[in-house]
Amino acid sequence: MEHDAQIRIQLQEILAGRHSRAMADKAAQILLQSDIAFRTGLHMLRYGEQPIPQRISWALEQAVLKNKSIVVPYLDDLVRWLPELGHDAERRNMTKILAISPLPEEELGNLLDQALLWKVSPNQPPAVRAWCTDICGRIAQLEPELKREIVLSIRESMQHGSVGIKRRNQMWLERLETSASH
Measured between alpha carbons, how far is 33 from 23 in angstroms, rounded to an integer? Predict the structure, then answer.
């Protein structure tokens, strides 16, 4: 318990500084030191007061980019927390983590529901919509019976969004339609 408190204090000191890539990288180094440190970061994401959750979300993303296996035990929790994420940065970083991590089988339905909801929402930033498209595409590859619904959703969202979002949608349509013909 004392170790948790030391880690939390260390992280809070880093996160209270200037919001920068160096801040995120320094916090990520701490998160990667142990499972307790990573869990402390997740606790700060879920229960911290702004701006701590949005800043720790960036550090968590950077930690996962360096070691994808560190997040695996917590993927189901991350999916359950998605609707509660309050800041665009938190949603962007957590959807990126979920898009690049193994899909959490226990929460796959909830993940798909949330990803479909955010993917078509004009209120979500483009990066969140893009990562949600990746999540949906990966689920369609894993669960062929959902492919038709996901392809329809991707086609529908082709009419809206930035050039980048349209390209991402087109890439997934091509992948999913190619995999259907094999």
Answer: 16
Each residue's pLDDT tens digit, 4-62: 889 999 999 999 989 999 999 999 999 999 999 999 999 999 999 999 999 999 999 99
**Per-residue pLDDT for 154 more than 70?**
yes
Cβ atoms of 156 and 162 within 8 Å: the answer is: no
Q: What is the DSSP string of 96-156?
A: HHHHHSPP-GGGHHHHHHHHHHHHT-TTS-HHHHHHHHHHHHHHHHH-GGGHHHHHHHHHH
* Helices 21-31/2-15 angle, 10° precision: 170
The 10s digit of each residue's pLDDT in 102-140 is 999 999 999 999 999 999 888 999 999 999 999 999 999
* Angle at 89 (CA atoms; ends 80, 114), nearest 5 degrees: 35
Task: Return d(Cα 76, Cα 89) in angstroms, integer.
Answer: 20
Q: CA 47 to CA 38: how far, in whole Å?
A: 14
Burial class, 21, CB count within 10 angstroms (exposed 0-12 / middle 13-18 / buried 19+): exposed
- 180 confidence band (pLDDT: 50, 70, 90): low
Residue type, 107: E
User: How far apart are the C-alpha atoms of 87 and 155, rounded to whole Å?
Assistant: 28
